[in-house]
Design brief:
Length: about 575
């Protein structure tokens, strides 16, 4: 951006909290390049909308970011400006026929994704051999509830498949069978060589979990049908990676090595946890995907969308679910024996506050704990920390790997989640509160950050050490008495990984996490804090659903009833045109 041409910018009306520096800078740039004051205001609002996850700004009506909505005549005048196009020619801003304003890049992301996915909508015809293979792959399956899974596997060689479902509905189990089916179909067609399959997920932690689940699933299926051993080894030859790794992200050049010019050498890409993927990254996958390669998307479309812009899985599912012979398969039966939270997940998904509150009264696994102010929060945090001390204290005196393993497991038993990171009800303050109490109880000096028993979360990928954003670890001395940070095993080595605390990439306390940060992890029991403010737009049903979906056995809601009702009534839809473009595909 050319800083020399920045001009002062004071559009009216401004948001209540005033323009942020980056919004002001974009607006000034527009002014400096000959754009009108009105266009500068649109650019500033578009930046604000993007920071809330939208990929565009609909101009005709007021938006949740606070933008006012402009008259049709004003929008027409904006269309005529030199910095604006209708998308046919390159320009900094695009206003499409529906009056949505985009930055050129986001516009191209949507177009490209819609084109690549839209070209993959044919579904293969059923035949008897397929049916026999499906039967073989589903030996030992719970036949009363696996119809949707079978349907997905029968269509394994479709150019596009989208598997969506809540926790424990069998997405990974089905994905393994889908890979096997695809390989068996290729063998039947006389391919001879193994398929080149790339497995990836948005975060290192999610990739690690995918590997573990697929390996476990392979062991189970081979135990029943040993002849599948070789096929399993072939389809799982390459372990799952982060999407960035798969595409060859270069941090120094800030671009991917693979793209339209240098596509991936693969026959199939399977992406897990796609709800966490942002628009730009899915576009990068679409660019790098060879024309004849298949694409399988797995995830829970009801979960919170990526922290960056776009809600790609939700858009794809909403646009293509229900299309006859379409690529979306929804799995809705919870298979885990501890599926006690499934009805609550259903209530959260549908925004049914009465239903959820009733379940909280009736189900032992669910609890509603009224939370109306900071004093109430403090008391709750004291009690929560007290429970943690009981579990952690006996383990924090240990040393070496077995003790660290037990400590890691102990921290998985209960996890506090917060809607916000900052503020009195945010994760940072709650973690500080809890850590202070545990530290005191364990007899560590105040202010110490390096104490045995502490749980930490990694905030930045460190490829050289194999530590990734979201990885959870604990601090405990090794056999030599030196404090170490211990993390779950990676790859085929079953040992925990130990690092000197000073070698860790950026990290923070994990005693309380935001719901976003907890995505991809599961805990026995979860408590979710909703700040008592029904007007807070960030509190929505996807947030409550996502927090609930991270709990295996128990869930506590710390909230006041009006806030919970308001949150469940809100289904935040991110603004974008991908859904509509896919519906037309
Ligand atoms: N058809 C089936 N028959 C028997 N058990 C099944 C079936 N489908 C899934 N399961 C079992 O349910 C459990 C959850 O399956 P899986 O891990 O594949 O679900 P998931 O949707 O990937 O879960 P998450 O999103 O939590 O990772 C596993 O123990 C799996 O073996």
């Amino acid at each position: 951006m050319n800083r020399l041409s920045l001009l002062p910018f004071e559009p009216v009306p401004a948001p209540e909290d005033g323009w942020r520096p980056e919004e002001r800078m974009l607006a000034s740039w527009i002014r400096g390049h000959g754009g009108s004051e009105a266009l500068a205001a649109v650019a500033a609002w578009l930046r604000r909308a993007e920071s809330q996850g939208d990929s565009c700004l609909p101009l005709g009506t007021p938006q949740r970011c606070g933008s006012p909505g402009w008259d049709a005549a004003v929008i027409d005048t904006l269309r005529g400006e030199r910095l604006v196009s209708d998308g046919a020619a390159r320009a900094p801003l695009v206003i499409d026929a529906a009056g949505r304003c985009y930055w050129w890049r986001s516009w191209r992301h949507e177009l490209r994704i819609a084109k690549v996915l839209g070209a993959r909508l044919q579904v293969p015809a059923a035949d008897d051999t397929r049916a026999a293979l499906v039967e073989r792959l589903f030996a030992g399956s719970d036949a009363a509830h696996d119809q949707a899974q079978r349907r997905a596997v029968a269509a394994a060689d479709a150019p596009l498949l989208v598997l969506t479902g809540g926790p424990g509905t069998g997405k990974t189990r089905t994905a393994l069978r889908l890979l096997l089916m695809r390989q068996l179909l290729a063998d039947r067609a006389g391919r001879g060589e193994p398929l080149r399959i790339a497995l990836a997920a948005p975060t290192g932690k999610a990739a690690h979990r995918l590997n573990e689940s697929l390996q476990q699933g392979a062991e189970q299926i081979v135990a029943l049908d040993p002849q599948l051993g070789e096929t399993c080894a072939r389809v799982l030859a390459q372990p799952a990676r982060t999407v960035h790794r798969l595409l060859g992200w270069s941090p120094s050049m800030r671009r991917f090595r693979h793209g339209i010019e240098e596509r991936l050498a693969v026959d199939l890409v399977l992406l897990d946890e796609v709800s966490m993927l942002d628009l730009g990254t899915l576009r990068a996958v679409c660019d790098a995907l060879p024309e004849n390669a298949g694409l399988v998307l797995l995830g829970d479309a009801e979960q919170l969308s990526s922290v960056a812009s776009g809600s790609v899985l939700d858009d794809v599912v909403q646009a293509l679910e229900g299309r006859v012979g379409g690529p979306v398969v929804r799995l809705d039966h919870g298979f885990r024996s501890d599926a006690a939270l499934m009805p609550a997940l259903g209530a959260a998904r549908q925004g049914d506050a009465d239903g959820l509150l009733m379940l909280c009264r009736e189900e032992a696994a669910l609890d509603f704990r009224p939370l109306t102010d900071a004093t109430g929060l403090s008391a709750r945090l004291d009690a929560w920390a007290g429970q943690l001390v009981e579990t952690i204290a006996p383990l924090a005196a240990g040393r070496g790997e077995p003790a660290a393993r037990a400590l890691l497991a102990a921290w998985q038993r209960q996890q506090l989640l917060c809607a916000l990171r900052e503020g009195r009800f945010g994760a940072a303050a709650a973690a500080e509160h809890i850590d202070t109490l545990i530290r005191e109880a364990l007899g560590h000096p105040p202010e110490s950050r390096l104490w045995a028993g502490r749980s930490v979360i990694v905030l930045r990928n460190d490829y050289s050490r194999g530590l990734f954003n979201g990885d959870l670890g604990v601090l405990l001395p090794g056999d030599d008495g030196q404090l170490r940070a211990w993390f779950a095993p990676a790859g085929s080595d079953p040992a925990l990984r130990a690092f000197a605390p000073g070698d860790l990439p950026e990290h923070a306390s994990a005693s309380a996490l935001t719901v976003h940060k907890a995505q991809g992890s599961e805990y026995d029991r979860i408590a979710l804090i909703l700040p008592p403010n029904p007007a807070l737009a960030l509190l929505d049903r996807q947030l409550v659903y996502t927090a609930l979906s991270r709990a295996r056995h128990g869930f506590e809601l710390w909230a006041d009833e009006p806030t919970l009702r308001a949150a469940l009534a809100r289904r935040s839809l991110r603004q974008g045109g991908l859904r509509e473009r896919l519906m037309r595909a």
